[in-house]
Amino acid sequence: MANLLDIRRRIKSVKNTQQITKAMKMVSAAKLRRAQDRVINARPFANKMAAVLADLASQTTEDFHHPLLDARGDEKYLVVLVTADKGLCGAFNANLIKAAQSFLKENAGKNIEFIAVGRKGRDFFRRRATVAGEYVGVTGKGRVDFSEALEIADDIIKRFTEDETIDKIFLIFAEFKTVLSQRIVAAQLLPIARATETEDPNKAPDEVKDYIYEQPPAEIFTRLLPRLVETQIFRALLESIASEQGARMTAMDAASKNAGELISTLTLNMNRVRQAAITREIIEIVSGAAAL
């Protein structure tokens, strides 16, 4: 049985850890509030922009071609995986890595490369797959600027347009739902999908929009399609930051409660050891007195 001094040291250590977990929970809660507001503000614009451009692309003639729209083969994929730079956020990084591993298994015959946004994903796949690029420190500070998303998007667009062997680019990230839940999203980023009539069978014929072009379609798509990729990357980073902070806040709350339970258990054990020591000393005193 552990002696009294060891138990007291253990209780002090757990209390110090509990203070750290409580502080991390408060920091994550503050960051989550800001990140959640940014996500809510960014979603409508990103969704509407994607819907409008997909609708526009579906109405173009077959003679119109654009490198970000034209379908290619089905041999080589580039996967943009967005994870966290830090741990202590529950199963957040593990779920994203599992989703990426499932993607590899489902496309076992394909040549797949990764662009890792976040240290955790980079470290895991560095020796297990081909990491063609990495961006570390983007989400670690708890907020992201559009310029950082622009840098990643420009790199992706450049790779896709200059390397014709890349057939598709996918984006894997965690979409923020609530503090307790996140949804893993694995969506095709490039080439940009064209909306078709079969996507919404309940859509009435009069709901089909007839757009009027002030500029030639080529000029419009050349300007807007890269903006769409930038917007989708920016939204994925915002979603990932909010999901990470929510997961960390939940994990630190659970850790603080577990530390409290452990402190109660150790305190009870310490009282039992102290009581046993006192009882033993009393017995020794009584035995000595009886011997005299």
Structure, described:
- The structure is a single chain.
- The chain is α/β, with parallel strands linked by helices and 292 residues long.
- The chain folds into 2 domains: 4-25 and 250-287, Orthogonal Bundle (Helix Hairpins), CATH 1.10.287; 34-247, 3-Layer(aba) Sandwich (Pyruvate Kinase, Chain: A, domain 1), CATH 3.40.1380.
- 58% of the residues lie in helices and 13% in strands.
- The chain has 5 helices and 5 strands.
- It has a 5-stranded mixed beta sheet, with helices on both faces.
- α2 links the parallel β1 (76-82) and β2.
- α1 (4-58) runs antiparallel to α5 and α4 packs across α5 (217-291).
- The longest helix is centred in the last third of the chain and has 75 residues, at 217-291.
- The chain is elongated and about 115 Å long.
- The model has no long low-confidence stretch (mean pLDDT 85).
Overall SS class:
alpha/beta
Kindly report the oligomeric state of this protein: single chain
Largest sheet: 5 strands, mixed
| Residue share in β-strands | 5-15%
Whole-number mean pLDDT: 85
Spatial sequence of strands, sheet with the most strands = 3-2-1-4-5
Order of helices and strands: HEHEHEHEEH
Distance between the termini: 32 Å
CATH class of the largest domain: Alpha Beta
Shape: elongated
The CATH superfamily of the largest domain is identified as ATP synthase, F1 complex, gamma subunit
- Helix fraction bin: 55-70%
- What CATH calls the topology of the largest domain is Pyruvate Kinase, Chain: A, domain 1
Contiguous low-pLDDT stretches (5 residues minimum) are none
> How many DSSP E strands?
5
- Going by CATH, the architecture of the largest domain would be 3-Layer(aba) Sandwich
Domains (count)? 2
Q: What is the count of helical runs?
A: 5
Radius of gyration: 28 Å
